[in-house]
Amino acid sequence: MEKTNRGVALVTGASSGIGYAATKALKAAGFGVYGTSRHTGAEGPDGVTMLTCDVTDDASVAALIEAVMTEAGRIDLLVNNAGVGLFGGAEESSLAQAQALFDVNMFGVIRMTNAVLPIMRHQKSGRIINLSSALGFIPAPYSALYAATKHAVEGYSESLDHELRTLGIRVTLVEPAYTRTSFDANIIKPDRSLDAYASTRADVAMAVEDAIRKGDTPETVAKTIVKAATEDEPKLRYPAGKVARQVSLLRRFVPAAAFDKSLRKMLRLPV
Fold this sequence. Notes:
InterPro entries: NAD(P)-bd_dom_sf, SDR_fam, SDR_oxidoreductase. Belongs to the short-chain dehydrogenases/reductases (SDR) family. Keywords: Oxidoreductase. By secondary structure, this protein is of the alpha/beta class. Helices cover 47% and strands 13% of the residues.
């Protein structure tokens, strides 16, 4: 039986992959759900209202929040899922490309969060779930800039949660590992290519592709998002899926040198 009275959820980047699965799972859990896409006319699951929003644009975010508030009158849950990937050597991306990546993955989170916080503070309740990644707490050769955005989201979220607890608002992180979505198929390439990195970049790319084929489904991550959204006493971090949980434990308890060696071996880098 569908649970009711969970409140109103807003999920960014909801036209496919983890975002789409999350809107469907949150709807089944009893939330009234709004999803967003950069593209007008994107379709969501049955019962989910899809709206257009570009998280890199202040006016677009403001218009989204106004539309949701006009129709629903409140926002109880924000899931910051919108994001883009970038694969290549850190040196292969220009500063402009790095800034564009941060504008979506980090500043998009800040824009959306700042837009809903006045509403949640007025309600004296609310929850914000930020989609991080296992690459938010481990090194990521050839995804250094993407990992930097997720490390930034982690630090921002943990600090913000401390600020908001006394206001009835909690912030949590969901940390997937490799997930079988179109995210990696649409990943951004560096805006220049350097021969010095060509061979090892190709080896790492093959290792990552193999890991993705064996990765979790979006539904696995969505299940974790629902857990983070509905637990009475939310944790700060929710690794999503078996691999993410394993990596989280290894990062915490395995000696640094051993973890370094294992990571390089997994990514087919010279040990």
